[in-house]
């Protein structure tokens, strides 16, 4: 297995490349679909049919946006967490989905990326729903690790032979410092997830926003210290800003 990395629209894209198959470690942005195709067919010089599976670590636009379209175009399987219901459900869920799309566009503008269509249908056509400890079908070197907190369905991927773990948005690296993601809907689960990853004693930790990093025990403690004690969510942030406006 070779782990390949390219830059996506606003996040890193990782491929686990084998002689006869390829696993995409996350569902990327909708704007990344053609980039993924061109990398596999032109850079790797492999048929696109070698893309056998796509993992969706959680439902945010830069982690799920390309998955359904990749499946529709190329027939790859979609793998995600075994959690009932949809993340973006009901009226509140729809409002949150729109705000996440706008946030992704804002990040893209900050990164000076061209405007692209990132709108996607926020319901997965998943083939496999996997739980903590399950192995990915046809890629049994990779184990699912539940790392909830950012949302209710985050998973990380642990490559057992090399002890490499892809943690998606469990942490974000900004100016060489680690910070928790936004939002954190479940603070206690988030802290438990950090502890779970540290207990794996990984040789490499890979972030969706920050690349391959080494995280020390002190870094884990720092992340725990920065983690919110109450949910840090879109609505709470909006209420806080509104309250400041009214006070001023």
Q: Secondary structure elements and their pairing?
A:
Elements: E1 2-7, E2 12-17, E3 22-24, H1 33-43, E4 51-55, H2 61-64, H3 67-74, E5 77-81, H4 90-110, E6 128-130, E7 135-136, E8 139-146, E9 155-159, E10 164-168, E11 172-174, E12 177-179, H5 187-200, E13 204-207, E14 211-213, H6 217-226, H7 234-247
Parallel strand pairs: 3-4, 4-5, 5-6, 10-13
Antiparallel strand pairs: 1-2, 2-3, 7-8, 8-9, 9-10, 11-12, 13-14
Helix pairs in contact: 5-6
Largest sheet: 6 strands, mixed
How many helices in DSSP terms?
7
Low-confidence stretches: none
Q: Under the CATH scheme, which architecture would be assigned?
A: 4-Layer Sandwich
Q: Could you name the CATH homologous superfamily?
A: Ribonuclease Z/Hydroxyacylglutathione hydrolase-like
Strand order of the largest sheet: 1-2-3-4-5-6
CATH class equals Alpha Beta
Integer tally of domains: 1
Structural class by SSE content: alpha/beta
> How many extended strands?
14
The helix/strand order is: EEEHEHHEHEEEEEEEHEEHH
Tell me the strand percentage band.
15-25%
Gap from first CA to last CA: 57 Å
Radius of gyration: 18 Å
User: What fraction, in percent, of the residue positions are helical?
Assistant: 25-40%
Average pLDDT, rounded to a whole number, is 94
Instruction: Tell the overall outline.
Output: globular
CATH fold-level assignment: Metallo-beta-lactamase, Chain A
Domain Metallo-beta-lactamase: 10-209
GO molecular function, one term: hydrolase activity
Protein name: MBL fold metallo-hydrolase
Keywords: Hydrolase
């Amino acid at each position: 297995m070779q782990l390949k990395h390219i830059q996506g629209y606003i996040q890193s894209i990782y491929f686990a490349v084998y002689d006869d198959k390829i696993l995409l470690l996350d569902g990327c942005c909708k704007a990344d679909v053609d980039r993924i195709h061109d990398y596999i067919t032109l850079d790797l010089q492999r048929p696109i049919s070698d893309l056998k599976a796509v993992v969706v670590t959680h439902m945010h636009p830069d982690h799920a946006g390309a998955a359904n379209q990749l499946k529709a175009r190329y027939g790859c399987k979609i793998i995600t967490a075994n959690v009932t219901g949809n993340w973006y459900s009901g009226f509140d869920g729809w409002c949150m989905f729109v705000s996440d799309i706008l946030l992704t566009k804002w990040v893209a503008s900050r990164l000076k990326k061209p405007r692209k269509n990132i709108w996607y249908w926020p319901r997965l056509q998943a083939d496999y729903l996997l739980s903590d400890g399950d192995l990915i079908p046809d890629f049994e070197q990779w184990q699912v690790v539940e790392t909830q907190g950012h949302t209710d369905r985050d998973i990380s991927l642990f490559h057992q032979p090399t002890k490499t773990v892809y943690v998606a948005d469990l942490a974000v690296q900004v100016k060489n410092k680690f910070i928790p993601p936004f939002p954190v809907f479940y603070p206690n689960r988030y802290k438990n997830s950090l502890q779970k990853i540290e207990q794996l004693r990984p040789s490499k930790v890979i972030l969706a926003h920050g690349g391959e990093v080494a995280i020390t025990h002190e870094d884990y403690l720092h992340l725990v210290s920065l983690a919110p004690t109450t949910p840090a969510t879109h609505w709470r942030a909006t209420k806080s800003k509104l309250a400041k406006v009214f006070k001023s």
